[in-house]
Write a structure and sequence with these properties.
Blueprint lengths: L1 H17 L14 H14 L8 E4 L2 E14 L5 E10 L1 H11 L3 H23 L11 H31 L3 E13 L5 H4 L4
Antiparallel strand pairs: 1-2, 2-3, 3-4
Helix pairs in contact: 2-5, 4-5
């Protein structure tokens, strides 16, 4: 499983490098943020496979997977989590921004996305109850419940940052946690746990 995730991540990085100027534009339509999030949440939660979807529908736009980011955060000395986040962008916006501003602008966009996603993940971890669930029927169910809770908390935490990013850059994006990648720590969390594996 780790090998397949690493291969997938490598492929995504190659695709991102090849399409580094593929980022998205437009502001989201006048649909309330909660409506957009619930649609994405349901779709992502139902996708329990080991491979992330290559496209995502947001509002009336189809976004392509352009980047996979690793992230991790500790809630305290004992609890925390790490996992992968999927960055989706509108390919039409990417091409337009490439023409208008050049490909180098996407390095700046990538840094902004990484920064606000990291902050949102820390907020989501802080809001998630990472204590062991005495009612879970097993480790798999406990993991699934934690992943669902963290997913929803992250989506709520990142929503405003995504909206602001889109307004500032004219690039339509979405950042979605990839539930199958999450590892939870309940008996010790420190920086060494959160470093990406090679």
């Amino acid at each position: 499983m780790k090998a397949s995730i690493q291969i997938l991540i490598s492929m995504a990085f190659m695709a991102l490098t090849a399409c580094a100027t593929q980022e998205v534009k437009q502001e989201t339509p006048a649909i309330p943020a909660t409506d957009k999030l619930s649609t994405i949440t349901d779709e992502a939660l139902q996708s329990s496979g080991q491979n992330p979807p290559m496209t995502l529908i947001k509002g009336n736009q189809t976004l392509n997977l352009v980047r996979i980011m690793d992230g991790g955060a500790c809630k305290n000395d004992f609890q925390g989590a790490k996992g992968a986040f999927l960055v989706y962008a509108n390919p039409d916006d990417i091409e337009r921004i490439k023409r208008e501003k050049g490909a180098q602008i996407f390095n700046e966009f990538e840094d902004k996305i990484q920064n606000f996603s990291t902050e949102a993940f820390q907020e989501a971890i802080d809001a998630t109850n990472l204590a062991e669930d005495p009612f879970a029927l097993g480790a798999d169910e406990a993991q699934e419940k934690l992943a669902k809770q963290l997913f929803n908390n992250f989506r709520n935490s990142v929503a405003d940052a995504v909206k602001l990013f889109q307004q500032q850059t004219t690039l339509t994006i979405d950042v979605v946690p990839f539930n199958p990648s999450f590892m939870f720590y309940q008996q010790g969390c420190d920086a060494t746990h959160l470093e990406p594996e090679n």
